[in-house]
Amino acid sequence: GAGGIFGGSGSPTFTAPRALPVFNAPPPDLKPTFAGPEPKLTEIATIPGVAATEMVRTPNGRFVIYTGDLPGVFRYNLATKQSTPIVPGGFNVEITVSPRGDRVVFMRIEDITKTEFGPLWAVAINPATGLPTAPIQRVTLSYGISPVFSPDSKSIAFFQIPKDLMAVQTGKDSAAIAVVPVTGGAERIVTKFGQGGQGIERLSWSGDGKWIYFKEGTDKGPGGLLSRVPATGGQPEQVLLYGHPESAKSTIDAQIAFFDVAPRGSGRIGYLSANGGRGEFKIPATAGTSVGAFGPPKTAFNTTVTNALHILDLGTGKVRDLPAGGVNARSVSWSPDQKRLAFATGGVGEPQEVVVMNADGTAQRHVPTTGGSPSWNHDGSALVYSVDNFREIRELNVATGVSRVVTSVAAPNALQATNVWQSDGKSFVASTWEYSDNKVASKLGASEVRLDGTRRELRNVSADVPSTLQSVLITPRLAAVATGKPPQFASGFVLVPLDGGTPRPVPMPALEPGERLSIVWGKSEHWFAATRQKNGQQSIQLMSTGTDSTRLLRLPAGVYPQFPMIFLPDGRSLLIYNQAMGAKDVTVYLVPLDGTEPRLIAHLPPGTGGMAWYGSSLSADGKSLAFFAGTPTTHIYDVDLTAILQLINKKP
Predict the structure, then answer these.
(1) 433: how many CB neighbours lie within 10 A of its CB?
(2) What is the 3-state secondary structure (H, E, C) of 46-62?
């Protein structure tokens, strides 16, 4: 939103506004130690049955505006605890509220079957009630993301992107930062970006109206640049180069810049202030773990889901309920003998456990932990799982319930256990991330971890494919890597042998104009899969792990496969979970790999969507699928930043 973390009514004011100091490298004394206390959070409201995905608070603090798992935009009254739709229907994202509190701007996805972007729209609201005073109005002709109001609420700055994103990748078109009046009109270009400009996001406008700040991606690593450009137009200049942040945000008066200091949910937030102050503080786990989690002024939110475990019989299509689940229950896993199940419960700010039980839900054992995603060893005697923000891997002895540390790494590095085991059953493959403090440098790799605690690197994957978007281990010796820009799409794939062999690009039919290749994964020993989409028509791109063979599987109209796609053990079919954005109907299709017609095999319970399916598990015989379905609740918190403000405003 326009207010950053500290904007809006009741926020601190800074005298003698001035621009942030400009650094060409991270300040050397920005140490990876916490320099201040955590902000104090107090839960002020819950919205049952709602999974909010974006939320902003109005400047007067009376209302929150949110979008979620249902079409439309909603106003929640913090006094009456009632939600009211203020924008009818549509798929709306990137919401923000004007400093005056009299207008809400959002991006409305134009056609969800063809794109994930759209033009900016606005609705005028009464600041006293938060309710609309006029119908919604289109603001831009072009597509726009990351809208932000000017301090006087009269203009909107946004990242302007062409409808054909591939044209930006190929240099045939360009993206830009633009400014438009709040009621619509001519879109004035502030500065243009060429190829790869999709890394621009998180715009904020300085309080004097002279500068527009933004986060800019870099090809030097996982970090990026905090940059600024004159609001009247010109060339961007770098404010701060940071090594680890996934986001950067400056306040509305541009007196303070905030950025994530370390990856993978550490909650470590760095700041740089105009008076020369710099340092870190930590966001409480309940609020989320990045700058963006604060979103609106002095408000944070998160969503929990109370999930129940179900078993789908692939032969009959019938769903059986199990007496198991819990808050944010996820990542279920069948034992090799198919007699037991294991899963994780809890989440950010919640008690966490690994639960082991019989396949009928009886004999449940709850083991307290700080992580999840359990993976069985070959004989079902033990589970391994990652804990402590992916800093540690533990082994749980299923018979005794005793867990022990197998291996660990020091912050800010991370590693994650996978379900890829070596044939001896005594070691498994772990994904690894290595970061160098205060430098734009990282390494994505794979290591073999033995149960005796020894660990050896198999390969530095990012050194071979530096433009990595996402990688997935297919076999104990092979990784598939997606390449290309922008981040949510791929342009191709590379197979990287983990034994030191030469990486090879995967041959496949070239993308046609307007066609997108996703990184929706399905994987087996012999195949891996992604989705291709053009004009709303989805198909599955199959690629062989051992040969140059590829296949294109056509899907029926209206079928939108979600992550992950699951190969059946017989190697003949692919199981896909289907749910269009905003749709309540959740179905499962069986897709034959020989190209014959896909078959609808089941309708799943409401609430199965998203991460519930992501953590599903297919039994070894390919007959039973364990999955979760549940009811969400959005929690809203008031954030007391007094201690942090005292720290930041203190002269260095």
Answers:
(1) 19
(2) EEECCCCCEEEECCCCC
Instruction: Give the pLDDT confidence score for residue 440 in this predicted structure.
Output: 39
| Helices and strands, counts by H and E, the chain | 5, 49
Question: What is the average per-residue pLDDT within 305-309?
Answer: 87
Q: What pLDDT is recorded for position 53? A: 85
Rounded Cα distance between 333 and 322, Å, is 14
Which residues are 241's β-sheet partners?
225
CA distance 40 to 22: 31
Return the closest-CA partner of residue 441 out of 26, 84, 99: 26
d(CA 474, CA 480): 7
The per-residue DSSP string of 134-176 comes to S--EEEEEEEEEEEEE-TTSSEEEEEEE-S-HHHHHTTSS-EE
Which is it for the CA torsion 310, 312, 313, 319, positive or negative?
A: positive
Q: Is residue 293 within 8 Å of residue 246, measured between CB atoms?
A: no
Place of tokens 């700040």: 213
Show the tokens assigned to 615.
């953590």
CA distance linking residue 200 with residue 222, whole number of Å: 14
Backbone angles phi and psi of 285, in degrees to 5:
-60, -35
Of residues 586 and 316, more confidently modeled: 316
Q: How far is CA 93 from CA 16, 55, 147, 217, 218, in A?
A: 35, 10, 10, 21, 25
pLDDT at 641 over 60: yes
Q: Give the separation between CA 420 and CA 523, rounded to whole angstroms.
A: 11
Q: What is the pTM of this model?
A: 0.77
Using alpha carbons only, how large is the chain's radius of gyration in Å?
A: 25
Give the C-alpha separation, 248 to 263, whole Å: 13
Read off the pLDDT of residues 202-219 as tens digits, 9 standing for 90 and up. Answer: 788 877 788 888 876 554
**Using CA atoms, how far apart are residues 269 and 267, in angstroms rounded to an integer?**
6
What tokens appear for 612 in the block?
Answer: 């519930």
How far is 466 from 443, CA to CA, in rounded Å?
A: 9
Of residues 450 and 388, the one with the higher pLDDT is 450
**Per-residue pLDDT at 626:** 94
Place of tokens 């390919």: 622
Burial (CB < 10 A; 0-12, 13-18, 19+), residue 441, is middle
Is 218 buried (19+), middle (13-18) or exposed (0-12) by CB count in 10 A?
middle
pLDDT of 75 > 80? The answer is: yes
Distance in angstroms (rounded) separating the CA atoms of residues 532 and 538: 6
Pick the most confident of 220-234, 316-330, 524-538: 316-330
**CA 449 to each of CA 157, 342, 431, 453: distance values in angstroms, whole numbers, following the listed order:** 49, 21, 10, 7
- Reference 310, options 632, 625, 621; nearest CA is 625
Predicted local distance difference test score (pLDDT) of residue 444 = 78
Tell how far CA 376 is from the center of its chain: 27
* Cα separation, 281 vs 402, whole angstroms: 35
Q: In what order do the strands lie in the sheet with 340-345?
A: 330-334, 340-345, 352-358, 365-369
**Helix, coil or strand: residue 312:** strand
HSE on the CB side for 513, CA within 13 Å? 4
Return the C-alpha torsion angle 599, 70, 616, 625, nearest 10.
-40
What span, in angstroms and rounded, lies between the C-alpha atoms of 589 and 591? 6
Contact 4, 55 (CB under 8 A): no
Structure tokens at 495: 């197979």
